[in-house]
Write a structure and sequence with these properties.
Largest interface: A-B, 65 and 64 residues
Number of domains of chain A: 3
CATH class of the largest domain in chain A: Alpha Beta
Strand order of the largest sheet of chain A: 9-10-20-11-12
CATH superfamily of the largest domain in chain A: Bira Bifunctional Protein, Domain 2
Low-confidence stretches of chain A: none
Oligomer: homodimer
């Protein structure tokens, strides 16, 4: 490819975006923002995206068949699973104007994921136990009604994705395939150059199961996820599910003081409260009132400095969904305005769940369940019976330990590059999709889904592989293998020489970007090459004589080679 | 690929769809209808689609750079060209439910074509005369708010398309590129196996130019377009633009009769009227009243049996748009209810355009401009002055001649497989996209757009290449080159033999679909092979001994070959 013919060019000045990938990819001419979260892939960009998708395709072909489902589908499919009215990133299509409305007024779902399409599709073809297991995948554009989109290709309203769905006659068979998929995913990330920094982390399995799902996370300083690593067990957890034990805070030889209620009007945040009461934050307590989907009202308390993890709490409480109680309910239960709830004297029908972080404290604070008041010098056994049990219902934070190994977690930032999710019978049940077993009986079908965001990966690779000059692509996904620079090209003999190199490389099946600009300085060409980040930079100029100068991006060493040596070095 | 692992299977019974392609592609397991006009491509289908798109891609790379623009884009872009409120196949996206609405209430256009995206994109990068000409293309899913979708892959609400856009500094340069694109398109259709039946036809250039656009039309009995072929000039016209001369109808030695007005209450259609008046249809006249965008009211008349071609009429009248006049206007102008308009005694400010088909008649009929009445025995020169000029404002029909060569057209059905369209400055002007010329002046940019519907092509190839047993794919787009059938596979030695053939073919880089089913009869396997339509059918069975039986789809001859001979025959 001639640089002069390429659609999209490097830019000297580019608006600084919130993310490295958006800035570098636009500066180097890979993508162009049409609106927040929505990009055009220019000549260079579509090449990288295609390479990523082809690697994914090759690996997925080992465990599934490729198909291509439509983006717009009937709303009725999404109504059948109850997701049409609840999924908050869901968009639909509608006629754009009155002429369109007159022509066809039907609305369609614009799919962000395809469980609602693939389940009835599979049902049309495969219902005998002999047909199972099977899996299908597609690589496709998806749509999400995202409100905030500021991380370049990492989060888009429109993005590219591989989604695979597997179908099984038992939970065990699903599990077996699920483990196999981990191996295949690991190969994908290895081939994309992310192998050594990509780990499998436990993540939430969603509201229909107590089981985990798994995320493939690339450890990365600019990552938007936080991982908790238990070194002893070699396990990574996404913060959202990390089991946690708070560090024990000890105040030696402390005398048990008389409890009292202190006026603290409008002082609600724990930091502010600790300062006001002149006590450490660790002595404060955060009490929240929740309502469950089965109409229970419960209270949950964590030590000051922590937050309640609703997913953990939900599983312990044993309900399908919970939400913070309304102000009205809070008032009824605590007999106080919102902000003064505490663990003392709650009604008997309000179950109280205490996080382990509130244990092992003396003279601690809690809301007084009295408007404007806080109780201090509260002690278990005296002011409230010693609880039979403490739970883990908090969001883990740095400094916490694994409850199982007592090892203090190593905490790191990471970016999700893929996820795998056991769906069990959630979708097959919604569509009443069953299989006929050997015994003639109709039985439930188990499903799994497996995602990789290909455009997102392009962004993450840039976040991971760059320096202050530009991108440093892994060879497997670089838009071209070689960036050929001709200098002094007004000299006809040099122009001929560089053209010969270009032709020879192409004839040998090597992908080359040839910077054929005649009026650009050497400095600009070198700086563009660093910005674009193609693995091999070759220079032909007066200075290189009959030879070609070769340098790898990200390295300093240069070699002067003749054409034959060059081909050997590159292949 | 093992047949048993393929997602999607042949079906014995399939609903008969309105089109051959929908029926055969679903019966053979290539596609599955999700809703009218929207299909999933199954394992076989995505392979064919990908092959078609790769051929298109290879050819387009010779005249443009690939990019990938987003499907959802800001509404403001479409408002800038005025198309947001007028294009009747345009859809937009909107949040699907109240949670989605709360998250992000912005609506976006779901693009059916990308002029509104590519023009401002090009504007960001290329503004110097040195940058021109250039062209970009993409292969992408498009969306159209189609009301009637009944032709399988030929017309979809969601479909795949290649769209290319070219940019030029002059109309001459656009013309040059436009001619070049015809050559490239011709190569594409040749490679897809449609070469000998695909012709270039003149079609409408749209409302902003008097120029033609060009369609690539594949001649095909089930085609939805009608072509008019002028053999002398070797030119094809789409019916919508075909210049036409009606056959002259002569009634020898006819006496000029006295004109009279005849009561014919409620008799409006020309067939019914001719019968009622006991005259040939050719003696009736159809007169229509139109209003133009510049507020003129005009009358247009064609001979009974013809219809007015509004596009031809618009160009002759010299306005940008016209529509049938309202009942109110018709009454005002003709002083009669709708249905009795005629060419006699129209107000002077209503220009009358007469098609050449109304000339050369004696004693003809026309509406009397009087409710319920028709004038008969009307003659030019006596009842109405002999017109200075007759026009061609009718829709051509079979039997018509080319006005230029007088040759009676050959008329045939065809299916559009591609179109190329000179856009001139329509879109560049809307975005005020100009280039800076050598002289420092800002000058207009000329654009062209060039489409090929890749999924539509898949349907057309099936319409063209099938017999009563199934599809007959051209080799270049067949999902596999070889369909290998194992028979008597319960015999272990035969199973081993057919597996060896499968392995050898795959090792030689030949794409094979291996029907590995053990419980299926030979008859079913043969009939599935014919239905699926892969070019080479191979059989290994007891009967074939050490050899392999080879037969080409669509031919009767069979050969018995050993493995080495087979490889030579296939490669």
């Amino acid at each position: 490819m001639l640089y002069s013919k390429m659609f999209g060019k490097t830019k000297k000045i580019v608006k600084e975006y919130n993310s490295i990938n958006a800035t570098l990819l636009q500066k180097a001419g890979y993508i162009d923002q049409v609106m927040a979260g929505t990009y055009t892939y220019l000549t260079l960009g579509i090449r990288v995206l295609t390479k990523i998708e082809n690697i994914i395709r090759e690996e997925m072909n080992t465990i599934g068949s490729e198909v291509f489902m439509p983006s717009i589908t009937p709303i009725s499919l999404w109504q059948q699973t109850g997701r049409f009215d609840t999924v908050d990133i869901l968009m639909k299509t509608t006629p754009a104007n009155k002429f369109a409305l007159a022509k066809n007024d039907t609305e369609y779902v614009l799919n962000p994921t395809h469980e609602e399409v693939v389940t009835p599709l599979a049902q049309k073809f495969f219902t005998s136990y002999k047909d199972f297991p099977f899996a299908v995948y597609q690589i496709q554009t998806k749509f999400r009604n995202e409100p905030r989109v500021k991380s370049g290709l990492l989060r888009g309203r429109e993005f590219r994705m591989k989604d695979l769905y597997s179908f099984h006659t038992s939970a065990e068979d699903l599990k077996k395939y699920y483990e196999k998929s981990k191996e295949v995913y690991t190969r994908v990330f290895k081939r994309l150059g992310l192998g050594k920094d990509t780990v499998i982390a436990f993540a939430s399995g969603g509201s229909f199961t107590d089981d985990y799902s798994h995320e493939f996370q690339t450890i990365c300083d600019t990552g938007e996820d936080i991982l908790f690593f238990d070194k002893k067990k070699n396990i990574y957890y996404n913060r959202e599910v990390a089991p946690s034990k708070a560090p024990v805070v000890k105040y030696h030889d402390e005398k048990i003081l008389p409890r009292k209620d202190v006026l603290g009007k409008g002082i609600i945040g724990v930091e502010e409260l600790a300062q006001y009461l002149k006590i450490p934050v660790e002595k404060t307590t955060k009490t929240l009132i929740f309502e469950t989907d089965d109409n229970r009202v419960i209270a949950a308390a964590v030590r000051g400095g922590y937050d309640v993890n609703e997913d953990k709490l939900r599983k312990i409480v044993g309900c399908k969904a919970l939400k913070l109680a309304s102000a009205e309910t809070v008032k009824k239960v605590t007999k106080a305005e919102v902000g003064y709830a505490g663990i003392l004297g709650l009604p008997e029908n309000v179950a109280l769940y205490l996080d382990e972080s509130v244990a092992n404290r003396t003279n601690f604070e809690t809301g007084a369940n009295k408007t404007h008041y806080h109780s201090i010098n509260v002690n278990f056994g005296r002011d409230i019976p010693q609880p039979e049990k403490f739970y883990d219902i908090k969001i883990a934070k740095e400094g916490d330990s694994s409850p199982e190994t007592n090892e203090v977690y190593e905490v790191m930032k990471a970016s999700e590059v893929g996820n795998i999710f056991p769906l069990y019978t959630k979708f097959s049940e919604a569509f009443n999709y069953k299989f006929i077993d050997k015994d003639g009986q109709s039985k439930p079908i188990y499903m799994g889904c497996y995602g990789i965001g290909s455009s997102r990966l392009m962004g993450i690779i840039v976040e991971k592989y760059h320096d202050d000059r530009g991108i440093i692509w892994p060879e497997s996904v670089a838009p071209y293998k070689v960036h050929l620079i001709g200098l002094d090209m007004k000299d006809e003999s040099i122009k001929q020489r560089v053209r010969k190199v270009y032709k020879t490389l192409e004839e040998n099946g090597i992908e080359v970007l040839f910077d054929d600009r005649e009026e650009t300085t050497a400095g600009e060409k070198f700086s563009d090459a660093d910005l674009i980040g193609i693995p091999y930079r070759l220079v032909v100029s007066k200075r290189t004589g009959d030879k070609i100068e070769m340098k790898k991006r990200g390295q300093k060493e240069m070699k002067l080679l003749d054409l034959t040596e060059l081909l050997t070095n590159i292949e």
